[in-house]
Amino acid sequence: MSFRGLRDTDPLDTSVLVLQDRHRSHLVDTEQFQDVLHPRQQMRAFLGMWRMDPRIRPYVIRAGFYGIYRLGHIIIDWPLITSLVERWRPETHTFHLPVGEMTITLQDVAILLGLRIDGLAVTGTCVLDVPGLCGELLGVIPPDEALRGSAISIRWLCQQLSTPAPDADDIALQRSARGFILALMGSFLFADKKGVHVHLCFLSLLRDFAHTSSYSWGGAVLAHTYRELCRASLDRRRGISGCITLIQVPMVLGETSCGSPRFWPCSRKSSTTFPSCLT
């Protein structure tokens, strides 16, 4: 795809990139919109609230999410994420860079996050019996103030399930593990607009941990990340949710894998610097 120049990211041919008039790069180029995106990922807050009890670790490992917990919190470079979003094209699902096109692949998800990328599709219904489902799988029924539609407060989950009793049996430990995985999804993998709630549609997939590990969670995370990139790149959006680490880390690794990275000032009116492949 041809562009006008390194500093002007408007495409010369809009027959494929038909959303250019709504695209963030066009708004930035015409000085209508230059804000840095706001973070919506709450992994650091989640890890500070919920210290994993060693007794639930085997269940988290069996479900296939222990690698996400071990990954921990990675500091997000929000000016870098903003610059990448400005170069993301919803029409092609690729970053359009001066050096060519690139995208995030299932291989990136498998290597960086350790999630399964084959297996059953992550799908189900969003019409839920919330009291019955939570009572069965979590052992507690959330009050109305802990719910937002069919999404549940991560903080409430932490308050109720983060500290199993010293004499807790296997059923109680499994319920705590389900709450932990659910909160991990809402804080990191499938973060919502504020990163403080998680949809309960995932809870029914955590009923049997052995069966949970048979789902393609990596494919679901990648699809969710693509959708959030598309949303953030259009119509003056001021934030981006989803698995932000999956956007940042491949770019950093891709830049450094060819040798020492070179950084140049970006086109914004700030002192922020970006990888040379973005400028």
Describe the structure.
Strands 2-3-4 form a 3-stranded antiparallel β-sheet. A 3-stranded antiparallel β-sheet has the order 5-6-7. A two-stranded parallel sheet has the order 1-8. Helix content is about 40%, strand content about 10%. It is elongated, with a radius of gyration of 20 Å. The chain is mostly helical and about 280 residues long. It has helices at about 25-30, 45-50, 55-65, 65-70, 80-85, 105-115, 130-135, 155-160, 170-190, 210, 215-230, 245-255, and strands spanning about 40, 90, 95, 100, 145-150, 150-155, 195-200, 240, 265, 275.
What tags apply to this protein structure?
279 residues; mainly alpha; 3-stranded antiparallel beta sheet; 10% strand; elongated
What is the structure about, briefly put?
With 279 residues, the chain is mainly alpha-helical. Helix content is 40%, strand content 10%.
The proportion of strand residues reads 5-15%
What spatial form do the alpha-carbon principal axes imply? elongated
Oligomeric grouping of the chains? single chain
Following the backbone from N to C, one meets helices and strands in this order, namely: HEHHHHEEEHHEEHHEHHEHEE
- Going across the biggest sheet, name each strand in turn: 2-3-4
